[in-house]
Amino acid sequence: MKKLSKLPRHIGIILDGNGRWAKKRGLERLSGHEEGAKAIGRLLSCAKKYNIEAVSVFAFSTENWKRSKQEVDGIFEILKNLINEKGNSFVEGGFVLRVMGDVSRLDQELQSLIKNLIERTKTNSGVVFNVGLNYGGRAEIVRAANLALEKNIEKLTEESFENLLYTSGLPPLDFVIRTSGEMRLSNFMLWQAAYSELYFPKFFWPSFNERKFVKCLIEYSKRNRRFGNV
User: Fold this and answer.
1) Is 224 a catalytic residue?
2) With 90 as the cut, is the pLDDT of residue 8 above it?
3) Lower CB density within 10 Å: C or N end of the chain?
């Protein structure tokens, strides 16, 4: 950690490469998603160890519904199992669960599990784990604009608009990581990422570990964030 001159407060991660990780090993795509779920546990441990205040992840996008029903159902089944198996340790670890996206399209069992875990962690004070489920950056911006109309807000400022986003109350998004080497945001946190540092490591998400996380932090520490200044 001596190499790190600064740390991000809020990291966003596009969890990419589960399917390609599985294909490379001759496995079904769902096996990649299962390993990706295990990697989330390693991510949370790292975030806690290195004092990251918030981590936002792109778990399921509004576009992911285009995938096969078998894969979509499998992803949500993995998520249910993850909550059932790791929910207690998540609570005891001091983590706070938040969700961004329209979860009303998810099945009732999964909605109940998510709602329950959010409620159980709301008084915790540790790392905020903000999960994008049925989430899209454009949809979030449109949702915020509609909320402003519903609230009869006649004039918006950047600050008042940010208070209508899913991430209201969270630190600014400092660092966006997309694994697998793909170099695009794919509709992830478009408003929040305006001044984020971007990093596109080539490893697939299921292979995430602490060594790779530290490498990401070292990359961030090298960046000179000017925010339009000289």
Assistant:
1) no
2) yes
3) C
